Prior knowledge:
single chain; alpha/beta; two-stranded antiparallel ribbon; 10 helices
Amino acid sequence: MLFGVAGVPHSSKGRSTVDGVRAIKELGLDAMEVQFVRGVRMGEKKAKEVGMVAKKLGVILTVHAPYYINLNSPERDKFDASVKRLYDSARIGSFFDAKGVVFHPGYYLKSSKQRAYERVKKGVEITLEKLEEDGIEAKLRPETTGKPTQFGELEELLRLSKEFLERGYDVRPCIDFAHIHARYRRFNSYGEFVEIIERVEEEIGRESVESMHIHLSGIDYGMKGEREHLNLEESDMKWRELLKALKDCNADGILICESPNLEEDARMLKDAWKSI
Length: 276
Ligand SMILES: [Zn+2]
């Protein structure tokens, strides 16, 4: 399992992506998720430079697409803009060999779950076809979301992934264990973590368990799901049980820490993983 953080580590001397990659290496971590969350503001040239530095240092990169994506928007311009943001994230990420492009698919708004599913699927399909046309390979990772108003239940994402995997596209869920816990106010025990991993294996195969894209942090939540991310030790997240479950299921892949303290929790997770 590779361990990384969401964005440039706090201890990084500079705030650029390249500085962040160097800091990851110095921290003894393995990966960084490049944050395009407020827009894809990196050009092709910069992305290639980031890729070269990361390759040289052996740091693995992933991408988090903009938050302003709603593939279930009934408004055509918003839908199109969402597709474009996802496409741009994947295109720029391809220049630094992103091992995953994470995105929040959208909101249910007034749609039924089935209607939302169909629209999201259409959006993902248009994005994938355009990427393919342009010769860009991308691993799209729709994320399990933390609020009941957001599209992104594990079952929805497994269904979506399965449909695209069958067509030869690399679409698999980004499993955010904190979001799943916050959304349902359960899924915070060894047995439930194993249940999640087993569902992934049943629906989209062993390979998906061996190449997981995981998000983890502590989390505060209420009846409406996610409130805010917390540091692991200041939350109720049973992260040791989660690591044990992942290890016992022989899971592998990339774990991105999204705690406010970023690298502190990422280091703690990596150290704990090694000692299990
Ligand atoms: Zn996310």
